[in-house]
């Protein structure tokens, strides 16, 4: 931790400690520069990327593991560091009398949850490779791809593209991903990141290596939680006992563990406490649906869908007795400028995607099929806070 971070941790407001020093460090959808306890995975990735240090492209690869195992955290951190290599001088001795300075490839990370369409995918890659802003409107997919081809063709070292969350609902289809890369110049190497085992995906037919990321062991997850707390909370706000309780409940899923920490912190902050309590953690765990959809999926939805969900989490249980009642309550929100028909369509659409769930009412006194309540498959407190922080 650098000096500036240490100073920030000692800052006080009105003479009292601030529980939350940095929301971003606590966010379960944010990744830090140095992920905790993932050294062996990092070494396996570095072994795969070893050709880069001689100025060459590595072969294609597939990184896989269960949800919350830290795949995204490790890859984003590694790519952030590797992308700085082209600006560095790294002389490689070829003979006793001659030296050459190779040029490293560029590194681009793409979240398939946000770039499922062909246009969004090419836009994300090109935007990461050029200094000028790439327009999002007034340009077609073919023109965008042509600009990307020109940029890649003019690159001597090439580019390595990591595509995260492949194979998930509302993500890039595996076949489409292979086709998109097949249409790019030959100086492109890719790293696909997903949850399926290698034998269950067609991607391994186009990759030279598969790199497995295991679920976090309990003590590793405790370290992850304590690291995030040291970055985002005041001193001694989270003790090891509470961190162990969260890690034991999360069973190796860092996303769920960090979400519980985030929600518990929000409850403690709202209550004006300087430290988290067991009650805060228990309340946060009670708020977690099982199964819980990733907050990254929710926050990757289009803005109008997120606005509907933001209104949904503030709808009282009484007004959520049926889809129709929920739709009416959301439509009355000042934050949603959509017709009731559109709101209802979005709710059904997100129920199909698993973002919300339609739970049949237990009432049996009325004729016909009982109405369905709309229940979020994510913790409302976490989404509400993260959504509001981004506005």
Automatic annotation (TrEMBL):
<dbReference type="InterPro" id="IPR050311">
    <property type="entry name" value="ORC1/CDC6"/>
</dbReference>
<protein>
    <submittedName>
        <fullName>AAA family ATPase</fullName>
    </submittedName>
</protein>
<dbReference type="GO" id="GO:0006260">
    <property type="term" value="P:DNA replication"/>
</dbReference>
<dbReference type="Pfam" id="PF22703">
    <property type="entry name" value="Cdc6_lid"/>
</dbReference>
<feature type="domain" description="Cdc6 AAA+ ATPase-type lid">
    <location>
        <begin position="223"/>
        <end position="285"/>
    </location>
</feature>
<feature type="domain" description="Orc1-like AAA ATPase">
    <location>
        <begin position="38"/>
        <end position="168"/>
    </location>
</feature>
<keyword id="KW-0067">ATP-binding</keyword>
<dbReference type="InterPro" id="IPR041664">
    <property type="entry name" value="AAA_16"/>
</dbReference>
<dbReference type="InterPro" id="IPR027417">
    <property type="entry name" value="P-loop_NTPase"/>
</dbReference>
<dbReference type="GO" id="GO:0005524">
    <property type="term" value="F:ATP binding"/>
</dbReference>
<dbReference type="Pfam" id="PF13191">
    <property type="entry name" value="AAA_16"/>
</dbReference>
<keyword id="KW-0547">Nucleotide-binding</keyword>
<dbReference type="InterPro" id="IPR055237">
    <property type="entry name" value="Cdc6_lid"/>
</dbReference>
<keyword id="KW-0235">DNA replication</keyword>
């Amino acid at each position: 931790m650098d000096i500036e971070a240490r100073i920030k941790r000692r800052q006080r407001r009105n003479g009292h400690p601030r529980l939350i020093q940095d929301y971003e460090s606590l966010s379960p959808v944010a990744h830090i520069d140095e992920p905790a306890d993932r050294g062996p995975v990092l070494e396996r990735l570095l072994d795969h990327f070893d050709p880069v240090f001689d100025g060459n492209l590595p072969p294609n690869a597939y990184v896989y593991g269960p949800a919350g195992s830290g795949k995204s955290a490790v890859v984003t951190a590694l790519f952030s560091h590797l992308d700085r290599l082209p600006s560095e001088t790294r002389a490689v001795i070829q003979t006793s009398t001659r030296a050459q300075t190779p040029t490293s490839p560029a590194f681009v990370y793409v979240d398939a949850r946000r770039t499922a369409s062909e246009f969004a995918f090419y836009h994300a890659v090109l935007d990461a490779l050029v200094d000028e802003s790439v327009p999002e409107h007034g340009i077609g997919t073919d023109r965008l791809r042509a600009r990307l081809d020109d940029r890649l063709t003019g690159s001597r070292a090439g580019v390595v593209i990591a595509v995260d969350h492949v194979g998930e609902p509302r993500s890039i289809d595996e076949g489409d991903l292979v086709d998109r890369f097949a249409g790019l110049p030959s100086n492109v190497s890719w790293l696909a990141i997903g949850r399926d085992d290698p034998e269950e995906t067609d991607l391994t037919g186009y990759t030279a290596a598969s790199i497995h990321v295991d679920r976090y062991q309990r003590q590793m997850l405790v370290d992850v939680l304590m690291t995030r707390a040291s970055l985002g909370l005041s001193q001694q706000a989270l003790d090891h006992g509470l961190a162990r309780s969260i890690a034991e409940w999360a069973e190796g899923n860092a996303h769920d563990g960090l979400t519980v920490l985030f929600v518990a912190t929000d409850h403690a902050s709202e209550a004006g406490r300087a430290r988290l309590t067991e009650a805060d953690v228990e309340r946060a765990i009670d708020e977690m649906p099982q199964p819980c959809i990733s907050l990254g999926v929710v926050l990757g939805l289009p803005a109008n869908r997120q606005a509907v969900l933001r209104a949904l989490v503030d709808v009282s249980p009484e007004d959520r007795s049926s889809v129709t009642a929920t739709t009416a309550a959301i439509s009355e929100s000042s934050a949603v400028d959509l017709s009731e028909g559109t709101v209802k369509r979005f709710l059904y659409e997100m129920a199909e995607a698993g973002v919300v769930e339609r739970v049949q009412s237990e009432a049996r006194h009325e004729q016909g099929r009982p109405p369905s309540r709309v229940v979020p498959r994510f913790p409302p407190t976490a989404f509400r806070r993260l959504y509001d922080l981004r506005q």
